[in-house]
Amino acid sequence: MARNREFDENVVLQKAMELFWEQGYEKTSINDLVERMGVHRRSLYDTFGDKHALFMMAIDRYESATKSNLESLVSRSKSAKQAIRFIFDYMIEGSEDGPTGCLFVNSAVELASRDSEVDAKACESFKFTEELLAELIRKGQHNGEFQSKEFAEVLAASLHNTLLGIRVLVQTSVGKDKLNLIANFSMSLLDK
């Protein structure tokens, strides 16, 4: 007779995601995961597979939450400029329900050069953000919010590059005032 699961899969996956986000893939051991998730080792393997499979599920969960957060920020904004500012603020302030920084940036730096699945997921996430920025820039150019005549894709790539740098810097002792100065300067490119 099969035993019923004694845990909520979504809750324990969230805990695994946060642990990978805090420590990275290599530093996180199966014992760390068992302890943080509050499940037996056998249950972890039976439910999620090996460590890499669990990590990829955690990445998918993070991707879903990040996309949802970004789409929510954009839908709440009154203008393209405000939407882009909200995105910068989100990256600077972080989310209330997780560690600082970005799981995708951390994972790309740690693993992308030797793990094609992680590389593909990180690139997919970065592409989503860059395309979202390009869409907002085109909207802002069309309605006169932005004066720059540069291609929206070029401006989006530049802004996205700044966002990636901010995602790294938020994990350091660099103050938020400096991060906001960087964001403001990058956004000023939209009016040049």
Spatial separation of the terminal alpha carbons: 69 Å
Helix share bin: over 70%
CATH architecture group name of one domain: Orthogonal Bundle
H/E series: HHHHHHHHH
Shape: elongated
The overall pLDDT, averaged over residues, is: 94
Quick one: CATH superfamily of one domain? Tetracycline Repressor, domain 2
**Number of β-strand runs:** 0
Folded structure, characterized:
The chain is mostly helical and 192 residues long. Helices cover 72% and strands 0% of the residues. The protein has helices at 9-23, 30-37, 41-48, 51-76, 80-93, 103-111, 116-142, 152-169, 176-188. Helix 8 packs antiparallel against helix 9. It is elongated, with a radius of gyration of 19 Å. The model has no long low-confidence stretch (mean pLDDT 94).
